Structures are given as structure tokens and as C-alpha cells.
Amino acid sequence: MSETARNLRENIVLVGFMGSGKSSIGRSIAKRLGYRFLDSDQVVIERAGRPIAQIFAEEGEEKFRDLETSALASLREVERCVIATGGGAVLREQNRRLLRELGFVACLKASEEVIFKRVSRTNKRPLLRTENPRETLHQLLTARQAAYEETAQFTLDTTEMTQPEAAETIMEEARRAFMWNRAV
Ligand code: S3P
Q1: Ligand 1 closest atom vs CA 44
Q2: How far apart are CA 105 and CA 121, in angstroms?
């Protein structure tokens, strides 16, 4: 059965590496569609009452991943939302299933150079606080690429695109998937 031949919920889920533009493009799509914007990292932060870097520092990555899985599960009932996810949300099979159940999943990609430039602007990503963040980024990206593409119904490389162009392209693909789903 094709991915869309099922009861596709009318949410747009964005997956992709840190700095791939999930939050900014997600906000732009939500505004254009009149959908609500949600961010799984933000859900984790609100539920834990602490920033992500603090969760990593105090309890480690596995605890963060558990919180991330339960944050994603808590979104099961939402409708007409754009949901940006943390860059590692696709790592667990359970999460990949949850994300696909949430709605139309699009993966955002950008060149390593562009991603590195964007993530270098802040220090809020604990996984890149290493001796050689450029190399860490390369390794994580290489290890995760298959999981992003396996989860998503549509992948968009935004390296050469403006934010409005990327938002429009994803909206168009999502519309097509939702229309096709309504027709079956
Ligand atoms: C992570 C990405 C972050 C955040 C956490 C772990 C990852 O989200 O969930 O720091 O494993 O790639 P963004 O992709 O929004 O930066």
C-alpha cells in the first residue's frame, strides 16, 4: 500500500538535521495555512521545566530521548498543526512510526556548509559541544540520513531556496497528499 493510502492526518511534520530550517520554515507554513505551530523540543522543555542542554547535562542523552518519545506521543490527537521535530527524533523506530501517524512528513535538507554556519550561531545544541563540531556534524549527518529519508514522504533540499519558496513547496506537496487521501 502506498504511504498516502491510509487515513492521513492533516498535520505537516518536519524532520531533518539541526539547522535544516524546521522551525523557521515550519512557522512560515503554519502562518500561511492558518495552522498551529508546534515544536517537539519545546514540548520537551515545557514538560521537563528545563532547557535541553540542562537535561543532557544532568541526565544524559537517553533520558532526553525518552522525554522526546513521550512528547511526540502526547501530540497524537492534534489536527491542523505544523510540527517541527528535534534533529534526533527519527533515531528510534517507535518515533518514526509515531511521526508517520501524525501526518504528512517532510524532510528538510541543506548542505553541510549551510548547516554548520547556522548551528554555529548558537551554543544551545549539546551534541555539537565537542572538540571538532564540524567533524561531529559530518558524522551525525551521515549516520542519520537514511533515517530521515525513511521517515519522510517528501524530501526537500533548501540549500538554494528562500524560506518562502521552501514553505510553498512543502505546502503544495502536503496539499496533494491530503487531497489524494480524501479521495480514497
Ligand atoms: C538534537 C537536535 C536538537 C535537540 C537536541 C538533540 C539532535 O533539535 O532536539 O539538541 O539529536 O539532533 P534541533 O534539530 O531543533 O536543533
Answers
A1: 9
A2: 27
Could you tell me the distance, in angstroms and rounded to a whole number, from the CA of residue 102 to the centre of ligand 1? 19
Give the ligand 1 atom nearest the CA of 125.
10
Averaged pLDDT of the chain? 95
Q: With contact defined as beta carbons under 8 Å apart, do 25 and 167 qualify?
A: yes
**Mutation pick for ligand 1 pocket among 43, 70, 127 (CB with most ligand atoms within 8 Å):** 127
The pTM assigned to this predicted structure is: 0.95
Q: How far is CA 31 from the centre of its chain?
A: 17
Ligand 1 centroid distance, CA of 153 (Å): 21
pLDDT tens column, 9-19: 999 999 999 99
What is the b/e burial string over 35-54, where b = at least 16 CB atoms within 10 angstroms of the residue's CB? bebbbbbebbbeebebebee
Distance CA 137, CA 184 (A): 42
How far from the centroid of its chain's Cα atoms is residue 55's Cα? 19
What residue type is 110 in one-letter code? A
